Every structure is written in C-alpha cells, then in structure tokens.
Structure to design on (1019 residues):
C-alpha cells in the first residue's frame, strides 16, 4: 500500500509531530497575549493522534516489514523506517497524546501554557527521529532534540523552586552524559571509520588492534543509553527530576523518554555492534547490560520500597522497570533463536508500561491539581471521594506490580520466559523476586486510597473539581491497561516482528 | 459459547452494579446474580461430559480460541466442564445470590461497590472452575484476590486492614510459588507440549514427556513441581501449618464475604490440588501419600482443637473449616473412587454447610452485635427460627445422616479405610474420624452456652426476630443441604465418573 506513496512519506509520523509543534509555536508568536489553553491542547492532541493513526496504519499495512520490501532507508542510509521504528513511534505518540490531554487541566491556571505544548511535541518529534536514526550522528542529534525540550519542561513551573532545581540537576547530568555519549561515538568512529550503523558493524568485524578504542567507545555509548533510560549508573537524576517536574512532564519523561532511550539501545547495539563480532573483539556488551539490568532493577525496587512520597516512589519504580526492559538486551546471545522473543517482549513491556506508568503519573497530576499532598498518608481515603480515578490508579499499581489480571503481568511473563528460553534463568529469577518486592510498595498506594481513612477530617474537601480532560486521560490509560491483556496477541506479534527486523538487519548477529 | 456468556454476563453485571446508586444496588445485584444461577442450572440439565476433562474424557461446553503464543506454546481461551467442575460452578452461582441477600442488613456503606465486587469475584471464580488452559486459569485465580482484598479491607471489622493484607500477602506468595513450580514442569516438558492446555500437559506427563532441564532429572523436577504447587495450594485450602491467615480473614470479613470465602474460595485450593497435584502428578502424590495423609489428619485434629479453644463464634466456624478441609485432603490422597469422589462431594457439602454456619452467626451478630460465646445466652428465646437453622447446620457439620456433610464424610471414610495406595490407611482414617467427636464437642458446647438457657445479653435495645431477608437464605441453604444429603447422587454420580480416571492413573502394587 505504502509503495504508492513517495519514500519520504514514511517519515510522516515524525513530520506530523514536528509540524504540529511548529504550528503551535507560530500561533503563540503571532498572538502572544491570547491565552488559549484549550485550543492549544486540542491541536496538540490531534497532532499526536494523527501521528499515532498514521503509525498504526503503517504497522497494519506492513511498512518496513520484510514481506513488503523491507525497511525504507532515506538520506543516504542515515534514516531507516522499519518495524522497530514504527512500534516505538506508536508508543511515543500514544504517551504524548495522553500527556497533552491531561496537561490541559493541569495547567488550567498557568499564565502561558503554550510553550508546554510545543516543547512536548518537539521532544516527541525528537523521539520519533530517534526511532528511525540509522547513523550515530543522527542518533546524537535526535537525542539532543529530545533532551533540550525536556530540560525546559522539567523546569516549566519557573516560580516553583522544586521544578527549577530539578531542571538544573537534570540539565547538568544530561549535559555530562551527552558529552560522554558523543565522545563514545567519536571513538567508535575512530575505530571503525563510519557512522552508519551497518558500516560500523562491518568495521567491528575487522578491528585490527583498535578493539580497545572501540570498546571504550561502546562502554561510553552504554553510559549515554543508561542516562536516557534512567538506569544505573546514570539514574540519580531521575528521582529528582520526576519529583520536581510538573506531573504530566514526569509522565512524559518516565514513559516516552525512557522508551526513546531503549529504541536507541535496541537498534544501535544490534545493528552496529553485532554481539558475535563484539564478543570476539573482547567487548561483551550483553554482559554489561546484564549487570546493569540486575543492579538497576534491584536498586530501583529497594529504593522505591522506602519512599514516603508517591511521586518519588513512582520515580524509583520507573528505574526498576528500566531494569526489566534492559533484560531485552542483556539476555541476547549470539545466534540464539530466542533473541527475537526476548527483545520483542521487552518492547511489548515498554508499550504496556507506556500506558500504565503514564496513567500513574497522571493520577499524581490529578492529585496535584486537587492539592491533596504528596505522601502516601495524604492519599488516605481518596477513593471515598473519587472512586473512578482511584480505581484506575489501583489498576495501574497492580499492573505495574505484575499481577495477573492486568497487562503488566503478561508483558513481564513474556519477558522472563524469553530470558529463560535464552538461558538467562538467573535474570528472570531476579526479575521475579523484584516483582514480588514491588507489590509491597505499589499496594501501599492502593491501601492508602481504599482502606485508610483521610489524614484529617477535612482532607477530602480538597477534591472540589472533576477536571474532565485529566479524568479522561487517566481512565483511558486504565482501560488500555486492562484491554491490553486480552489484546496482547497483536502487540507481541508486532513487537517480535520489530525485533526480528533489527536482528535480521544486522546480518551476522 | 454458553460458558463465555455465563462469565461475560457476570462481569457485565458487576459493572452495572458498580455504577448503580447505593440505594438499590443490593436488590439489583440479587436480581442479576440470579441469572448465572439459572444459567448454571441450564448447564446442569444439558451436561454431557464423560470421564475427566484432563485425562481425555469428553468435555462439556468446550470452547477454545487461540490467544497468544509464547516460547512456541499457544495460550488459549479454553474453557469446559466435567463432573468435577460442574458441581463447583453450581455451588458458586448458588451461594453468591444468597450471600448478596445476606449482605442487605450488615452492609450499609458504599453498597454499589460492595455488590459490584461480589459479582466481580463470582465471575472470576467461575473462570477458575471452568478454565482448562493453565494461563487462563492462573489469570482468573489471581483475579479473585483483588476483589477479596477490597471486600475484607473496606467493609471488614476493626482489624480489617491487617487481615486484608495478611490474606493478600499469604495467598499471593503462595501463588508465586505454585506458578514457579508449574512453570518448571512445563519447561521440563520441552517440545512434547504445544500449548498450555491442562489436558495436553496431563497427557504429556502421563506419556513420559518430562525431560531433564538445566541438568536436573525429570523425576526430581516433577517432585519439586509437586511440592511447590502443593505448598502453594495448601495455603489456599488451608492446611496446617499454612492456615493462620484464615481465622484473621474470616473474623474481620463481613458475613457475606466469609460465606464466599469459606464456601467457594477454599474450594479453589482443593480443586486445584485435585486437578494439578493428584491428576497430573499421581506418581509423586502416591510416593508422598503418607506425609500428605499425616498432614491431613493433623489438620483435622489440630483444626478441631483450635476451634475448641475459641470464644468467638466466627472463629469457631473458621477453624472448623480447617478441620473439614483435612478430610478433603485425606479423601484425595487415598486414590480410591470413593475417596476422590467423596472429597469432591465434600467440597460442595462443606461449601453449603460452612456458608450456612457463617450466615447464621452473622444473623445473630446483626441482632446482638457480639459473637463472643460468654456475652450472650438463650438466644433461642428471641430468634427461634434463626437459632433452629443454626442448630440444624451445626448438626450437618457434625455429620448427621441425611445431610450433605454426612454423605461427604461417609464417602471419604469408605474410600479411605481400605485404600491400597496409602499405607496404614485404617489408622489414618480412624484418627481422622476421631475429629468428628471433637467437632461435636465444640459445636454442642458453644450452642449450649449461647443459644439455650435463660436469655442474657446486655443491650440497650430489644433483641427481636431477624428480618425475612436474613432468614430466607438460611432456609434455602438448609433445604439444599438436606436435598443433597438425601440424594447425593445428584452430584455424586457425575463426580464419580470424573474421579474414576484419576484413580485409575495410579497403579498400585498390592
């Protein structure tokens, strides 16, 4: 179907996001004094949804799939639209749509919300470009395109000290890790003589004594990925940034931005650094990711268990989930037939996570909108006054913990199964143990909302409004979290096709 | 399609009730919950299964749709009934409307949520008893926990939060253990299974499909899987020493929830034991027959002793459930037609009788606001009908002939006494029978103190007769108990038909 369209149209999901962002900026420039929160939110939501529809259409039509002519490469091979790119673009567009809808109510009394919408859409554009980047240079540029608006978004509440402080911390760690990442790229370029992923791969196979340089470069690239995905050792910005940032921004960063980090990792490490050749050269990056995955999920879960504030707990839990998703890279082994399954499962987990985690942060946004406080105790008895939103939050919590009736169980199950099939029983076992630990702190939220009494007699009076858009976003995310359980078949198929695409592209994986 | 309709309708009913106003949520829930009951009666009338669903028998109302594929194995929506599951489905749909009716008096806050959760739980329970795919079954199995957690935690007694969390943690940890045990079994089956369908797995194990996995021999994997799943289900049943969550959950849970907890949720454990441990891994079960029988007898005696020591009527009934479940385990482990059949029958009988007891104690509590044996006396004076039914239920518990409890226990003892698969079977049986004496002891003494003699209760209001909608479910339950006691073949025939293949799976060298 897409054959009839010009090749550049394969980029339309990213273009739609970018054009929407530019249009918003333009309107805001022409009429800077007109505060039009609602129309801005509507336009950006429509833009994100349009991008999502086009992406889903492409996935259904099989664009970039091996059956329909394979990946579409553009710009001298620097950009490649394949099944992986489309799968992740779908995640980015869905999260963006949810976030901008929710933001409408969150910023109801903000004097100039327009910048929020355009910055969010620019970051989303960067993510969509990251998904199609096929050259290390494009990866870096797109990564910066995600990061720069994100710094501004975290510090968006400029009169709020927490927000500004979080933005500054995020910026400092981000700048450092960008530098490390860029230096890593230059070392890899020095060793292999190319930036195009496919050519880097052939360079890795004939390193001629440059294995040390390439190895250091790859380790530095791992560091850059760890920053973007909020994994150990570059995770410490995440709790600060997620906690200080406005909750819709936290939702956006912890879901979409994390997934963006993973799309880089999945593509670069499979296509540019084929595992077999890398291990031969003495650079076993899968081992590095295995260690990172183990440490990240354990640290994230244990740290989350001792938090007293819900948002901070969610921040640490999101570090823990980065650890689970890293299994998708850690449990790869050269030439194993189970690679597609485990990597696909990690992608499917990120998709499910995109809904349940965004939903959870948006519930926090709702709580912030009401002004009910930040700690577990402050959430006491919320269900008495807001049963629908609290039920949705319970769905998110149970799903994040991986309880069976929800989609989070399925994606974790597939992930751990894939790891076991590929011979990584210990990673799967550690993941399962961590999931059990996570039930403790997730259920604390549910317990507070449903079983505990309000902190004070008048605490529930704060719930004086029912912001429609925020409610709609939360409820929609909950419905998606539930429906992804029966509808998991197509998701996992698409994810496995995406994984198959990149692994096949790497040829001698 | 009829099973999908049954489960789907119950889910929808739960949603409708959740959104209904509190004022008439109770009546709406009762009306809607009658539909699955009628549906299950229809299933009963059209029931045509032969043999056991897992061992290659004909499955009634079978339907199967592929869901997803993982690791080369398909996971399906696969439901169906056989002679073991149908009675439990009927029990579930029968108890839920009665439990809802019994909730009208005690539940006075957030009614629509309460009844919605009850129906949500019913839907999942129906899923547990009908699912024939491991994955699907596990989803339903775990989904039962969520409504239960809220039902205890929100509407329970003073220590409800502690009880709810203890229940949740205990049963969830147990589920994880069971899940891991079962998964290791499917891994060891390797390529000999193409799906997670329970019949296929059972067949593959019977055909010797287990292979070494990670260097562990098949026999050892099967044994580890047996122990892990047994421990996991033992918590749910519960069997001593995994029983401590039960009294807490029962005492704190509101009456209608206790009814379902004792009546249906405990049966999930015994049902799963029968399906997984005793049908799939009969060799391991008979190798461990003596220790399992010992645990069963200990549960019977120790549970009864604990009941003897209690002052709280609800606690007495709760501990006697531990005791009754011991009989079920004994019936399962002996591997005879009457033993396994009797155990299944006892699941239904105990579901009705313990439901009746909890409900009757609840009705007394509604009037007196105390359940302590020492606080009241002579209740028969003020609530003759309720007390009459309570006494009848207690006699049913003690195994009075012509009541369902007698039939169940009688079958179990008949099957257990001369069981060839269990060494020292007569000794175990005789010890377990002794438990009945203790049951009679504590029930009679508790009734003597609370129900008879001159009336005494310190209240500032007049204690009078219970309202009709409180007594009606008691009468219905009592009638069902008597009917099933007089004509056990209503269920026992189909149970025996499904139990026989399980028994035949074990070859005993006599």
């Amino acid at each position: 179907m897409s054959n009839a369209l010009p090749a550049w149209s394969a980029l339309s999901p990213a273009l739609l996001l970018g054009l929407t962002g530019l249009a918003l900026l333009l309107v805001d420039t022409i009429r800077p004094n007109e505060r039009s929160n609602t129309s801005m939110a509507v336009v950006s939501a429509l833009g994100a949804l349009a991008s999502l529809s086009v992406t889903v259409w492409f996935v259904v039509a099989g664009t970039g799939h091996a059956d329909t002519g394979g990946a579409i490469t553009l710009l001298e091979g620097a950009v490649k639209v394949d099944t992986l790119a489309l799968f992740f673009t779908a995640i980015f567009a869905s999260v963006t749509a949810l976030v901008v809808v929710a933001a409408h109510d969150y910023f109801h009394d903000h004097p100039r919300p327009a910048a929020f919408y355009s910055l969010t859409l620019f970051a989303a554009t960067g993510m969509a470009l990251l998904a199609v980047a096929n050259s290390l240079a494009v990866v870096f540029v797109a990564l910066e395109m995600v990061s720069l608006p994100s710094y501004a978004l975290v510090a968006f509440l400029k009169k709020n000290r927490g927000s500004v402080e979080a933005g500054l911390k995020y910026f400092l760690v981000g700048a450092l890790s960008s530098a490390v990442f860029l230096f890593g790229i230059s070392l890899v370029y020095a060793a292999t003589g190319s930036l195009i992923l496919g050519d880097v791969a052939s360079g890795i196979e004939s390193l001629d004594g440059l294995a040390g340089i390439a190895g250091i470069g790859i380790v530095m690239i791992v560091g850059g990925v760890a920053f973007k995905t909020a994994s150990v050792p570059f995770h410490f910005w995440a709790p600060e940034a997620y906690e200080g940032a406005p909750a819709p921004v936290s939702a956006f960063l912890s879901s979409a931005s994390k997934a963006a980090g993973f799309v880089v990792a999945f593509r670069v490490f499979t296509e540019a650094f084929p595992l077999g050749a890398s291990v031969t050269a003495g650079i076993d990056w899968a081992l590095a990711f295995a260690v990172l995955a183990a440490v990240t999920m354990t640290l994230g879960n244990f740290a989350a268990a001792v938090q007293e504030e819900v948002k901070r707990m969610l921040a640490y839990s999101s570090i823990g989930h980065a650890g689970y998703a890293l299994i998708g890279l850690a449990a790869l082994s050269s030439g194993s037939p189970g690679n597609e399954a485990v990597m696909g499962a990690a992608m499917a987990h990120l998709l499910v996570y995109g809904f349940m985690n965004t939903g959870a942060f948006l519930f926090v946004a709702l709580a912030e909108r009401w002004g009910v406080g930040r700690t577990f105790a402050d959430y006491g008895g919320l269900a008495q006054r807001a049963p629908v939103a609290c039920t949705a939050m319970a769905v998110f919590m149970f799903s994040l913990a991986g309880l069976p009736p929800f989609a989070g169980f399925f994606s974790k199950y597939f992930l751990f199964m894939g790891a076991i099939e590929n011979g990584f029983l210990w990673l799967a076992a550690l993941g399962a143990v961590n999931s059990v630990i996570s039930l403790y702190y997730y259920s604390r939220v549910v317990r507070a909302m449903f079983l505990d009494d309000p902190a004070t007699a008048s605490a529930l009076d704060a719930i004086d409004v029912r912001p429609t858009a925020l409610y709609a976003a939360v409820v929609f995310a909950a419905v998606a979290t539930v429906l992804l359980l029966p509808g998991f078949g197509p998701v996992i198929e698409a994810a496995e096709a995406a994984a198959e695409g990149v692994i096949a592209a790497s040829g001698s994986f | 399609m009829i099973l999908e309709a049954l489960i789907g309708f119950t889910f929808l009913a739960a949603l409708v009730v959740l959104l209904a106003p509190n004022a008439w949520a109770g009546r709406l829930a009762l009306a809607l919950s009658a539909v699955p009951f009628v549906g299950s009666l229809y299933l009963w009338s059209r029931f045509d299964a032969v043999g056991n669903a897992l061992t290659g028998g004909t499955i009634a109302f079978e339907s199967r749709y592929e869901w997803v594929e993982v690791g080369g194995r398909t996971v399906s929506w696969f439901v169906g009934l056989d002679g073991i599951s149908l009675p439990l489905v009927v029990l579930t749909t029968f108890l839920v409307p009665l439990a809802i009716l019994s909730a009208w008096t005690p539940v006075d806050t957030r009614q629509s949520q309460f009844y919605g959760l009850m129906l949500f739980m019913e839907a999942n329970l129906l899923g547990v008893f009908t699912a024939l795919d491991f994955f699907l079954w596990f989803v339903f199995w775990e989904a039962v926990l969520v409504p239960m957690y809220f039902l205890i935690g929100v509407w329970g007694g003073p220590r409800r939060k502690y009880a709810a969390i203890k229940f949740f943690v205990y049963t969830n940890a147990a589920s994880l253990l069971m899940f891991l045990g079962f998964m290791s079994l499917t891994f060891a089956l390797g390529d000999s299974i193409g799906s997670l369908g329970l019949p296929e797995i059972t067949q593959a194990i019977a055909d010797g499909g287990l292979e070494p996995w990670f260097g562990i021999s098949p026999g050892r994997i099967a044994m580890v899987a047996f122990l892990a799943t047994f421990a996991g289900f033992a918590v749910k049943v519960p069997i001593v020493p995994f029983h401590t969550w039960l009294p807490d959950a029962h005492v704190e849970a509101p009456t209608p929830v206790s009814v379902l907890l004792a009546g249906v949720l405990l049966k999930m454990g015994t049902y799963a034991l029968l399906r997984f441990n005793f049908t799939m891994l009969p060799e391991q079960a008979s190798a461990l027959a003596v220790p399992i029988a010992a645990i069963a007898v200990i549960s019977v005696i120790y549970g009864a002793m604990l009941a003897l020591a209690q002052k709280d009527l609800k606690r007495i009934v709760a501990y006697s459930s531990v005791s009754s479940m011991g009989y079920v385990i004994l019936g399962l482990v002996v591997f005879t037609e009457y033993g396994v059949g009797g155990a299944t029958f006892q699941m239904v009988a105990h579901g009705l009788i313990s439901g009746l007891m909890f409900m009757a104690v609840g009705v007394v509590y509604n009037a007196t606001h105390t359940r302590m044996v020492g606080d009241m006396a002579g209740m028969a004076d003020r609530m003759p009908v309720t007390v009459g039914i309570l006494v009848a239920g207690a006699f049913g518990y003690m195994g009075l002939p012509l009541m369902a409890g007698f039939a169940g226990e009688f079958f179990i003892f008949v099957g257990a006494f001369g069981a060839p698969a269990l060494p020292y079977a007569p000794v175990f049986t005789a010890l377990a029978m002794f438990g009945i004496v203790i049951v009679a002891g504590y029930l009679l003494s508790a009734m003597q103190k609370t129900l008879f003699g001159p009336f005494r209760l310190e209240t500032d209001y007049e204690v009078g007769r219970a309202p009709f909608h409180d007594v009606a479910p008691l009468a219905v339950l009592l009638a069902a108990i008597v009917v099933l006691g007089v004509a056990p073949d209503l269920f026992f025939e189909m149970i025996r038909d499904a139990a026989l293949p399980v028994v035949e799976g074990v070859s005993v060298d006599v």
User: Anything to note?
Assistant: Residues 337-368 of chain B form the longest helix (32 residues). The radius of gyration of chain B is 22 Å.
